[in-house]
Structure formats: structure tokens, C-alpha cells
Design a protein that fits this description.
The protein is an alpha/beta fold and 433 residues long. It has 14 helices and 18 strands. The termini are far apart.
Length: 433
């Protein structure tokens, strides 16, 4: 069995980007594996009117190679939709369109192998390659592996048992559309979470329910705050900032990430405006909108009590507590990196880790392995602790993929610019002050 040059575990946007940028490289043999039957991108949140939060240029390839045939603009051309897109003057495309674009790209890449679940990785010294075990199929060999297994819905411990109980109308926002009809009909609904998903779910319920009565939105953040979207603020999603963040000491990085929550946990201004517009519309006449929106609140405990759910909550600033009753809960509580311990198997014990037990990731997104393992394992969207808040951002996906391809090929397949931001992050001893 001839080893692949690179095997990708998971077929999400980031590994699709990797495969799309590797396609023109004649001497690079790559294949991707995913247990799902097809590419899908957050299917439970493909709400009508919802857009992606980055410009369409943050597609699989454009920010590295705009001439690649798997660009979003070429997708439009092949679909015969370039002129409608031109007249629509859209910079942020609908989420359902990005989902369709991903499937279009995957169908044009021969190396995408869906319905192929990777169960474990092993290093075979005699073959100088990783053995990739596949459920119900023969294993595959690869000299290098990139883990793009993405993130999984994260539910806080106080709500976890409710969300996992099929008898309870409680769901993570990732599965919102599967429960939407029941949530619209529920007597009372509580949305927990202040980010973009929480805002979109709240807006959809506000628009779709027969009455606004019984709709509540709780957030742990001190305000329903907008995402940082100023032009210089967005430079924290550049490779320049990533390189700066990597050089910071681990304790500094760990302190900095939570303070940057508005970079990746805020709400886009359009959604905030749409919510306010709906509330204003409901305020016309003699009645105030019968909804409750309270920031600065954390859920301490939750339980089922008869036909209702009880949430014990605490207001962080007031230091007061209360018990709220509701018939349904949507936990818009974000995502966490999908654990890789089971996938890595015995290799997990050989990987270098930081002071908190997290995987050590080098500048080129490579995990640190002992010298006797001559192959490399790369990660996509599993390096926020080392590379910063931009790790899950689509705008940095093509750059990271190109960096990995350059590292595997041992040459600059893609010439990446030396500078990507007007801001100079950090002080440099060579600069005269």
C-alpha cells in the first residue's frame, strides 16, 4: 500500500480548503475522510435570512489563491448566478448558500471519502507512515495527517442533563431547527446564551411565535453586545496577530482569550438591529413587548418539575439569585473543540503538552511528536490556546491550509505575504522609538 502524502480526518470547511489548495499540486497525494454521508455546515442553524459573519472572500481558497477553480465566485459562475450576485451587492452571503457551496466543492474533489469513519491513528515505524484505521474498511497509510474534526456543541453542566433527556424540551442551538415547531408552540421558552446563535434563535422565536408572551433571553455576559467589527479591530484575525499571540507566554494567552470575547462571542450589528426592530414593532400601541431579556445572569442549576423546567439563576453584578420557570430551553452556549484522545490512541501519550495538559502546537500548526516519529500531525481549529481567537474563523482557513501544504511539501507552494495588518503587534527591539 503506497502511503498518502497527507490524510485529513474530518471534512469541514478547513479540511475542504486544504484539499482545494492541494488539488493543483501535482506531486501531493491527499485524501479526506469523514463519517458523515455528505458535507453539511451547521445544518441545525440554517435559519432563513441568517448570513455568515465573514465576507464571501473567506471561502476555501480566495485569500491565498483567487484563481483556484473552487473559489466562491467560480461556484456562482458554474451555477449561472454571477449576475444576480453582482446586483445583490452582498458581502456576507446567506448561511444556506455557504452550505451549498461546500457541497459543490466537495463533489469536485476526488479525495473526499464520506461515510468513512476514522477510529484510530497508529505510527508504523517500518513503513514510516501513520496507519489510519477505518470502521468497516481496510486501513490507509499516510506520511502526514491533519485533524480537522471541528467542534462539538458545548452544554454547561447545569443544563446538560436536561438537554440529554429526550422527554424534556431542551436542546442545544445546534439542533434548533429539528425542534423549532415544538419551541414555537411551547407556552414559555428560555434561550440561554448571548452570542450570535442565541441572538438568531431569539429573533426567529420572536418572529415565529404567535405571541411574544413567555419568551425569555438570558446571557452571562454583562450586555447583549455587538461583535468587534471595526476595520482595525478585525486585524486581530490576521496572520500577523496570530504570530504575535503565539509568542506570548502561556499564562498571558490564557488571560487574554476570555477578555477577547467580543471578537468571537458577540452579535453582528444586523441581528441586533433586527431584534430591536421586532421589539419596536411589538411596542406600537398601548403594550410593551412581553419578552424578558436579561444579561449578566448565569444558570446555577436546572431540573424538571412536573410539566415545567426550573432554572436556578444568579445575577453576577447584583449577587442575587432567583428560580425561573419555563416549558422549554434552548442552550445557545457555543462549541468546544472535539476531543481527539480516542482518535490519537497510544500516540496521545507521545505528544508534547503545555502546562494545562493541552496539545502543544507549533507555528505551522504541527503537533510536537518525539523524533522517532518522522511523520507529522497537523491540526485545524484545535489551536485557539496557542494561535488565538482566530482559530475557528473562516477568514484564516485558507492561510492555515496553505501553511500546512507548504510544510508537507517542504517548499513554498504558496507564497504567503510577510505582512497582513497595518497594526504592529508588540514591541520590537530593532525599532527606534
Amino acid at each position: 500500500m503506497k502511503p498518502l502524502d497527507l490524510a485529513g480526518v474530518g471534512i469541514g470547511p478547513f479540511n475542504l480548503s486544504l484539499a482545494a489548495l492541494a488539488e493543483p499540486v501535482g506531486d501531493l497525494d491527499i485524501a479526506l475522510f469523514d463519517r458523515r454521508a455528505e458535507f453539511r455546515w451547521h445544518p441545525g442553524l440554517l435559519l432563513e435570512g441568517a448570513t455568515i459573519q465573514v465576507p464571501f472572500l473567506a471561502d476555501l481558497v480566495t485569500l491565498v489563491d483567487p484563481t483556484n477553480p473552487l473559489s466562491f465566485l467560480n461556484y456562482l459562475r458554474e451555477k449561472g448566478r454571477l449576475f444576480p450576485f453582482y446586483f445583490a451587492e452582498r458581502f456576507h452571503i446567506p448561511r444556506v448558500e455557504y452550505d451549498d457551496y461546500g457541497r459543490w466543492a466537495a463533489s469536485r474533489l476526488d479525495g473526499c471519502r464520506f461515510s468513512s469513519e476514522v477510529t484510530e491513528l497508529r505510527w508504523l515505524a517500518e513503513q514510516a507512515a501513520f496507519e489510519i484505521a477505518l470502521s468497516g474498511a481496510q486501513p490507509v497509510l499516510a506520511r502526514n495527517v491533519v485533524l480537522g474534526v471541528g467542534s462539538s456543541p458545548s452544554v454547561p453542566l447545569p443544563l446538560a442533563h436536561l438537554v440529554s433527556d429526550p422527554e424534556v424540551l431542551a436542546t442545544h442551538s445546534a439542533d434548533y431547527l429539528t425542534q423549532r415547531d415544538r419551541l414555537l408552540a411551547a407556552e414559555t421558552v428560555t434561550v440561554v446564551g448571548s452570542g450570535q446563535s442565541g441572538a438568531e434563535v431569539f429573533l426567529d422565536l420572536l418572529r415565529g411565535r404567535a405571541s411574544a408572551v413567555g419568551l425569555r433571553w438570558l446571557a452571562r455576559t454583562p450586555a447583549f453586545a455587538p461583535m468587534e467589527y471595526s476595520k482595525l479591530g478585525l486585524e486581530q484575525f490576521t496572520p500577523d496577530y496570530t504570530a504575535y499571540f503565539r509568542r506570548l507566554p502561556e499564562p498571558v494567552r490564557d488571560r487574554l482569550l476570555p477578555a477577547q470575547w467580543q471578537l468571537y462571542k458577540g452579535i453582528d450589528a444586523e441581528t441586533i438591529a433586527a431584534i430591536h426592530d421586532e421589539l419596536y414593532r411589538l411596542s406600537v400601541g398601548d403594550s410593551w413587548p412581553a419578552v424578558v431579556m436579561t444579561p449578566g445572569v448565569e444558570v446555577l442549576a436546572a431540573r424538571k418539575n412536573g410539566d415545567t423546567l426550573e432554572l436556578d439563576v444568579r445575577h453576577v453584578q447584583q449577587e442575587t439569585t432567583a428560580t425561573l420557570r419555563t416549558h422549554a430551553v434552548v442552550a445557545a452556549t457555543g462549541y468546544a473543540e472535539t476531543p481527539t484522545n480516542g482518535l490519537l490512541g497510544p500516540l496521545g501519550d507521545k505528544l508534547e503538552r503545555d502546562g494545562s495538559g493541552r496539545l502543544a502546537v507549533d507555528a505551522d500548526y504541527r503537533l510536537r511528536l518525539p523524533p522517532e516519529i518522522t511523520g507529522s500531525i497537523f491540526v485545524q481549529n484545535a489551536e485557539r490556546h496557542t494561535h488565538g481567537a482566530g482559530a475557528p474563523d473562516l477568514g484564516l482557513g485558507a492561510w492555515r491550509s496553505a501553511s500546512i501544504i507548504n510544510a508537507v511539501a517542504g517548499r513554498d507552494v504558496y507564497a504567503l505575504p510577510d505582512r497582513t495588518a497595518f497594526t504592529t503587534f508588540g514591541l520590537h527591539s530593532s525599532e527606534a522609538l
